[in-house]
């Protein structure tokens, strides 16, 4: 019987990412506490604190710093590339909404939309053409169109900036690099501003720099999603939807880094 890779991966991620491990720890601590084990109280306390902090922006920021998320480009760094020949801005896909009722078609999800917006801004600031890499991911089994097609439609209609390259066959970050960089190199591109989220950038750079070296292409990180300060406000230490998503994203990227995907 063939293994459903998409379902298996989804199950593993659900089991490995918050809140599942912390809920299991709380349940085990409660069980031991009922049996009079003092260690159960400690386990329960750790689980409850973990549940709280795993949904905060502060925890997401600390984890991002721990894994070495790169800083955002400054405006002066962007200006340095303006008008230089042989450059391109490349946006990596992060998923789509398969059907948005308000538009009547598939649209970029929040992650891809943020990357695409910054990529379009960089393209206008530098004068470089814009490209996008993203097909149908390993777990996106119900997606009917590659991400690149959806992103291209959005770039043309929303930003009036048609994609010069739209790579729609890749299924993960390594394939993004392997499929897209030869297209850019064949077009004479020597410098690539690589746009993805700060927490994904370390993994993306590993794949793209390895693929770019034989082609003589320079890859420059252009991350989005970095925080200026997510530690000093009381709100940063309180649970929020954004905080929970950021913590899960950082942990997901660390798992993917270890897996080499």
Automatic annotation (TrEMBL):
Q: What is the lineage of its organism?
A: Bacteria, Pseudomonadati, Pseudomonadota, Betaproteobacteria, Burkholderiales
Native source species = Pelomonas baiyunensis
Keyword Membrane carried by entry: yes
Any idea what this protein is called? YdcF family protein
Q: Which Gene3D superfamilies match?
A: HUPs
The UniProt keywords, alphabetically, are:
Membrane, Transmembrane, Transmembrane helix
Q: Which domain of life is it from?
A: Bacteria
What InterPro entries does the record point to? Cell_Envelope_Assoc, DUF218, Rossmann-like_a/b/a_fold
Q: Does the keyword Membrane apply?
A: yes
Question: What Pfam family does this protein match (any one)?
Answer: DUF218
- Looking at the UniProt entry, the stretches that span the membrane are 6-27, 39-55
Q: Which residues form the DUF218 domain?
A: 88-255
């Amino acid at each position: 019987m063939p293994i459903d890779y998409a379902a298996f991966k989804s199950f593993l991620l659900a089991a490995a990412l918050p809140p599942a491990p912390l809920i299991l720890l709380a349940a085990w601590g409660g069980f031991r506490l009922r049996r009079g084990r003092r260690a159960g109280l400690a386990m329960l306390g750790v689980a409850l604190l973990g549940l709280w902090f795993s949904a905060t922006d502060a925890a997401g920021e600390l984890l991002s710093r721990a894994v070495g998320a790169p800083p955002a480009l400054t405006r002066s760094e962007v200006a340095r590339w303006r008008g230089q020949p042989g450059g391109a801005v490349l946006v990596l896909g992060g998923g789509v909404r398969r059907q948005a009722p308000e538009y009547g078609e598939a649209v970029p999800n929040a992650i891809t939309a943020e990357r695409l917006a910054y990529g379009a801004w960089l393209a206008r600031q530098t004068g470089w053409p814009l490209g996008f890499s993203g097909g149908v991911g390993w777990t996106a089994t119900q997606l009917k169109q590659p991400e690149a097609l959806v992103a291209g439609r959005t770039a043309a209609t929303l930003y009036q900036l048609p994609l010069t390259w739209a790579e729609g066959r890749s299924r993960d970050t390594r394939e993004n690099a392997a499929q897209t960089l030869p297209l850019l190199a064949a077009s004479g591109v020597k410098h690539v501003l690589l746009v993805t989220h700060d927490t994904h950038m370390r993994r993306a750079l590993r794949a793209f720099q390895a693929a770019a070296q034989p082609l003589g292409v320079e890859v420059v990180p252009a991350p989005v999603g970095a925080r200026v300060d997510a530690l000093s406000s009381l709100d940063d230490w309180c649970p929020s939807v954004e905080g929970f998503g950021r913590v899960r994203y950082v942990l997901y990227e660390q798992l993917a880094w270890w897996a080499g995907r």
